[in-house]
Amino acid sequence: MIMADDKDVLRDVWFGRIPACFTLSPEETTEREAEPYYLLLPRVSYLTLVTDKVKKHFLKVMKAEDVEEMWFEYEGTPLKWHYPIGVLFDLHASNTALPWNVTVRFKNFPERDLLHCTSNSVIEAHFMSCIKEADALKHKGQVINDMQKKDHKQLWMGLQNDKFDQFWAMNRKLMEYPTEEGGFRYIPFRIYQTMSDRPFIQKLFRPVSPEGHTLTLGDLLKELFPAAVCAEDEPKRFQVMIHGIEPLLETPIQWLSEHLSHPDNFLHISIIPAPSD
Amino acid sequence: GTDEGFIKKTLLIPIKSSISHQQLGCSIQDENMAADDIQANVEDETAGVQAVCEIHAVLRYEYHVLYSCSYQIPVLYFRASTLDGRPLSLEEVWSYVHPNYRQRLQQGPWDTLTQQEHPLLGQAFFMLHPCRTEEFMKPALELAQAENKKVNYIVTWLSVVGPVVGLDVPLSYSTETQRIRRGHAEGLKGAKEASEAFILKALLKSPQCRDTEDCYSNISLEVFVFSCVV
């Protein structure tokens, strides 16, 4: 059951915003100088879904022949549009001053590294495939498969149009589980870090131990990223960030999955080096 | 007689590190493969065959078989590029798939090819959607068992999904290993079959899907696809 306080958490997660400043790369060809464009980005959405205005703004100073598919980079690193915006920020820029300075590009698309995003239907397909994969982990896909096409559409439209109630009317079904189980079959999560070649860590992880103990974020990390869990007297080497905050390691992973997942139903965990000061 | 139009040849070379020669006519470097991985039964069936043809296009296909722990099935990732590194778009990749297979795809249950991030490399690949795997694996497995053939899940799966994306892996080769020494195309009919050879020991020795703990174990296959006019 979702408690009243917990519902506030759902809202806070949904309405989280990151102030960003978009600047056209000096490598792009313009007819006259381009002003930066400021925008509040929803943490839970995707760059290509919310930057139509950015594109329109910069197209005003560019010739059509100098414009190909728009893409973004931060300090030279291409930004993967298929990662939620909040994850990109936490991973790359969480300990820097706001606004988040993102560079806009229209040429030299990094074919090897970035997926193409030619229309909103590509974003929808990606979003829905994440939800399906999450449900495969949580319920063997039974809940998502029992939903009708229009229910799936409602999840997507809720995200696209920033409609919390519309989205959660459907999403709550994906957050249910048989009481006797104590939680989902497996927790859908991904751990990101910039220090490794591997884009993310994803493994099967049950929220309840075979002995029936409720497992925590700390338990998950001990198994998959032990360097992030250190003793009280040791200096912290890493920050474990979800939606820009560092949840207590004692938090049950089942609770985190139900309340701090992104709309794609995945718990996206960013592990970044702790600031040195 | 000769085939009109284009002949497609497929080579499968398992790699640990990248292949050093990517030009036609060069022999494939053997030292990249660990000796115990490949016990090749090398039959140079191309002996005595003259290869005379004009090469039109050489493409480099890279196939990765990964295991999805979310769906608990193997998933095929692939990408293609020209030899000078230009990546092929999905449309271009489709144009190189044999028309018969294109038809099969339209009828088949394996709906979509989409661009995806490779879970281990983080780079852009195409992925064959895994959702109907159970559905089409069942008859393929039953058939193999009915014929009393030893069944390797990965090989069977690959032989069903492979052709959809231009990768020919006939089931009949599953119990043998053959290796092509030369990377050039033969223009004559008999040699066509002979040159469709590949190494499966690498696949056969790979860990059984269901035992692996890791969400994505990676079996890489690098394939050269080229067309020539006879």
Automatic annotation (TrEMBL), chain A:
One of its GO terms (cellular component) is autophagosome. InterPro entries: Atg5, ATG5_HBR, Atg5_HR, ATG5_UblA, Atg5_UblA_dom_sf, ATG5_UblB. It holds the Pfam family ATG5_HBR. GO terms for biological process: apoptotic process; autophagosome assembly; autophagy of mitochondrion; cellular response to nitrogen starvation; immune system process; negative regulation of programmed cell death; piecemeal microautophagy of the nucleus. Residues 122-176 form the Autophagy protein ATG5 alpha-helical bundle region domain. Keywords: Acetylation, Apoptosis, Autophagy, Cytoplasm, Immunity, Isopeptide bond, Membrane, Ubl conjugation. Residues 13-106 form the Autophagy protein ATG5 UblA domain. Signal peptide: none annotated. PANTHER family: AUTOPHAGY PROTEIN 5. Forms a conjugate with ATG12. Part of the minor complex composed of 4 sets of ATG12-ATG5 and ATG16L1 (400 kDa); this complex interacts with ATG3 leading to disruption of ATG7 interaction and promotion of ATG8-like proteins lipidation. Forms an 800-kDa complex composed of ATG12-ATG5 and ATG16L2. The ATG12-ATG5 conjugate interacts with RAB33A; this interaction is bridged by ATG16L1 and promotes ATG12-ATG5-ATG16L1 complex recruitment to phagophores. Interacts with TECPR1; the interaction is direct and does not take place when ATG16L1 is associated with the ATG5-ATG12 conjugate. Belongs to the ATG5 family. May play an important role in the apoptotic process, possibly within the modified cytoskeleton. Its expression is a relatively late event in the apoptotic process, occurring downstream of caspase activity. Plays a crucial role in IFN-gamma-induced autophagic cell death by interacting with FADD. This is Autophagy protein 5. It comes from Cirrhinus molitorella.
UniProtKB/TrEMBL annotation, chain B:
The keyword Transferase applies. Pfam families: Autophagy_act_C. InterPro entries: Atg3/Atg10. Keywords: Autophagy, Transferase, Ubl conjugation pathway. Coiled coil: none annotated. It comes from the Eukaryota. The keyword Transferase applies. Belongs to the ATG10 family. PANTHER family: UBIQUITIN-LIKE-CONJUGATING ENZYME ATG10. This is Ubiquitin-like-conjugating enzyme ATG10. The lineage of its organism: Eukaryota, Metazoa, Chordata, Craniata, Vertebrata.
